[in-house]
Specification:
By secondary structure, the protein is mainly α. It is built from 2 helices and no strands.
Length: 56
C-alpha cells in the first residue's frame, strides 16, 4: 500500500504544480494519465480491502 500512496502523492504533486504554473488554464490530461490514475485507485482499494480482512 505504501507504493500506491506514494504514486498518488506524486500524481497530486504534479497536478498541483501544473495548476500553479497556469492557474487560469483548464488542465488537460492524456488518456494514459487517466489509466494510471485508475490503476492506482484500484490497487489502493484492493490493498485496503485486504488490510481490512486481515484485521478481522
Amino acid at each position: 500500500m505504501p507504493f500506491s500512496q506514494k504514486g498518488f502523492d506524486q500524481l497530486r504533486n504534479h497536478q498541483e504544480y501544473v495548476k500553479m504554473r497556469d492557474p487560469g488554464e483548464e488542465t488537460l490530461v492524456s488518456e494514459e494519465f487517466l489509466e494510471v490514475i485508475t490503476w492506482f485507485k484500484n490497487s489502493f482499494i484492493r490493498c485496503n480491502d485486504r488490510a481490512t480482512l486481515a484485521k478481522t
